[in-house]
Amino acid sequence: MTVVLDEVTKRYDGGAGPVTALNRVSTRFGEGTFTAVMGPSGSGKSSLLHCAAGLEPATTGAVTIAGTRLGDLGENELTRLRRDRVGFVFQDFNLVSSLTAAQNVALPLRLAGRRADGDRVRAALAEVDLADRAGHRPRELSGGQQQRVAIARALFTRPDVLFADEPTGALDNRTSHQVLTLLRTLVDRHGRTVVMVTHDPVAAATADRVVLLVDGRITDELTGADAAGVAERMTMLERTC
Fold it and tell me: How far is 184 from 140, CA to CA, in rounded Å?
């Protein structure tokens, strides 16, 4: 599923006046591709992700997911699109502490008033190599295991596109590699579209393309870059900020 941003601007009300987080950003995330979004702190990375996923409305411009313009949807229609076609993974996992791994995976369907098939829940956990942790609560899981539960939950409704906001930010190197390998597999084996915000050049090098943001504008794109190349380009950008 393709996601397109056309001249998207996002402004927030600030204490000293409006703050422009995104400034006429145009880009597309093609079907079956893996894109990393990088930039200095405050560059608009999370705002781009939230607007692209329909979690926040653009102030001006248009966001289109699979040919559907988000600004044309009512709140109920937008909720259904996010629930059925979009997955989202956060840095802090956002698991419900009182629920087991299996119950957390099934939560989106339960909130929608639909019954979650037990076999599908077990298959989702098996896909992230956690079939034997279905009955464990978040406090009984490592950080990497919690993140994989969060990914299984995001994928449970079989969305076409997965947005990930710093999915490895709270993980050690070994566990980060496991999560990145899983995201890469979603693209290569299952044809999903993955868009990931990250500050880590190693994580970014896993992607097909790296989009670089500065002051709410896309300033550069890299393809086929290794971690050293991404880190060098980021250092150059930060020196100009």
Answer: 27
pLDDT for 48: 96
> Is residue 186 classed as helix, strand or coil in its secondary structure?
helix
| Structural domains of the chain ordered from first start | 3-88+160-240 (3.40.50.300)
Residue 128 C-beta-side C-alpha neighbours within 13 Å: 28
Window from 30-44, 156-170, 196-210 with minimum mean pLDDT: 156-170
Dihedral of the CA atoms 19, 23, 24, 25 (nearest 10)? -120
Band the pLDDT of 47: cuts 50, 70, 90: very high
Q: Interhelix angle for 143-155 vs 101-111, to 10°?
A: 30
Provide the pLDDT for residue 241.
Answer: 65
108 in helix, strand or coil? helix
pTM of the full structure: 0.90
Beta bridge mates, 32: none
Cα–Cα distance between 222 and 97 in angstroms, integer? 39
